[in-house]
Design goal:
mainly beta, eight-stranded antiparallel beta sheet, 0% helix, Cupin type-2 domain-containing protein, Cupin_2, RmlC-like_jellyroll, RmlC_Cupin_sf
Length: 113
């Protein structure tokens, strides 16, 4: 599958927690810390290609295997593994496995997101 074909499908997202960072840290007005549980069904795609400029985060895989496509390479992450997402991250994700893949994603986003 090419990056152009990485349209989202088979993905569900549940917001687990969110906190207004402006009330906690000077200079963080309009930003919040959020934690989500993302489930990618077998054959599912978390796309299209997207970046994390202004939206840094980290991901931890709970179940299944997630394939991360970035910089022309693919990396598979299984339970207990994860990856950072910084301003240089441009990627899309998929589940090539036969069971749902579940991740916990924590990132800093604009309050409107």
């Amino acid at each position: 599958m090419s990056a152009e074909q990485a349209e989202p499908r088979g993905v569900s997202v549940e917001l687990l927690a969110s906190i207004d960072l402006g009330a906690e840290i000077p200079g963080m007005d309009g930003r919040r810390l959020r934690m989500r549980m993302v489930t990618i069904e077998p054959g599912g795609v978390f796309g299209p290609v997207h970046d994390h400029v202004g939206r840094p985060g980290t991901v931890y895989v709970l179940e299944g295997t997630i394939t991360d496509h970035r910089d022309g390479t693919t990396t598979e992450y299984g339970p207990g593994l994860g990856w950072p997402e910084d301003r240089n991250t441009v990627h899309w994700l998929e589940n090539r496995g036969t069971v749902p893949a579940v991740e916990i994603s924590v990132d800093v986003v604009e309050s409107a997101d």
